[in-house]
Amino acid sequence: MSTMDDVARHAGVSGSTVSHVLNGTRPVSASTRTRVEEAIRALGYRNNLNARALAAGKTFTVGLATSALQTPYFGAIVNAMEKRLSGAGYMLMVGDSNDDGPTERRIIDALLSRRVDGIIVTPAIDSEHTTIPQIVAAGTPFVLVDRNLPLDCDQITPENTESAFLLTNHLLALGHRRVAVLRGLMGIGSSPERYQGYLNALAANGVPLDESIVLNGQGHRDDAEREVRRVFAGPDHPTALVALNNSMTIGALEALVGLDLSIPNDVAFVSYDHFDWSELIRPKLTSIAQNVELMAETAVELLLRRIDGDTSPAQRVTIATTFQHRNSCGCGLD
Question: Are residues 186 and 284 in the same domain?
């Protein structure tokens, strides 16, 4: 079996250089990295992770308890996190809670049992009373992502309230007064914040709240489709709709197509969350785009610092969003 010294001799470098390439502990030039990687492949060398973990006092694994991995948004977050962690020599272990508290607890139990070095959590309902205390009691560094909690801990979230205000206010500025909203699970941090932005826009424009057009999409595609079909089936349906996440956006679009309602002629439509394929939809979606990569990279960087012993005060970082003005709102853009 080949050793690290064998790889070093084959590549013409020092053993420490091979170690830096394998573990991401120090920058190495591209040409040197290529020689080392070619030597590893030629010799069939495998890094001894157990020995590395014993020597460093780490497992070089990070756990992620998230939700709805099948959605474009959370899939993009996981992809960005994995890239950054891999570059730092860590492996990412992922569990999908599906926004279910007991499932999230089982995931956290499994990750703690495997002695991960840190955990990233997209918290489910009631996490602050269940899973988060588990992590705190274990002394494992952790960071919350996407959804905030009323806790003194590291949290990285997108801007929610002002973003939803911008979407709703834009429709109201175009003359709509019956603007329906698809809101998510109200026990999850981001949902009430986005709904509050909707309410703020109504108040700023002197439009009273009509609770009959507040649709509980629960953050899910199927629930959103069912709610939109229910409210928009009659002739006196709302003239505009705000969907407050991308899963509900898909469900809403399916419902409107099924009802043979045209966007924006019959229903002006805007959404919180951007899709890579938004430009392919006709009309193009007016939406709020999140900086998913920045949010993921910020969370990983902060967690890695905590793993390395950073004890500075907890940080709450809000990542700015971008208003993408297109045609689905009814604006005839060039």
Answer: yes
pLDDT of residue 74: 81
The domain that holds 62 is classified in CATH as: 3.40.50.2300
Nearest 5°: the CA angle 201, 202, 204 is 60
Cα 271–chain centre separation: 16
DSSP state of 109: H
DSSP state of 28: -
Work out the burial of residue 168: count CB atoms within 10 Å of its CB; fewer than 13 is exposed, 13-18 middle, 19 or more buried.
buried
Tens-place pLDDT, residues 255-290: 999 999 999 999 999 999 877 666 677 899 999 999
Distance of CA 16 to the CA centre of its chain: 37
Residue with tokens 């507040």: 214
Does any domain span residue 334? no
What 8-state DSSP symbol labels residue 178?
Answer: -
Distance CA 251, CA 129 (A): 31
Residue 116 lies inside a defined structural domain of this protein? yes
Q: Is residue 98 located within the same domain as residue 137?
A: yes
Q: pLDDT tens, 45-64?
A: 776 555 555 455 688 999 99
* Contact predicate 202/168, CB 8 Å: yes
Q: Could you tell me if 77 and 107 lie in one domain? A: yes
pTM (two decimals):
0.81
Instruction: Establish if 330 belongs to a structural domain.
Output: no
Dihedral (CA of 201, 240, 76, 222) sign: positive
Stronger pLDDT, 7 or 50, i.e. the higher one: 7
Report pLDDT for 277. Answer: 67
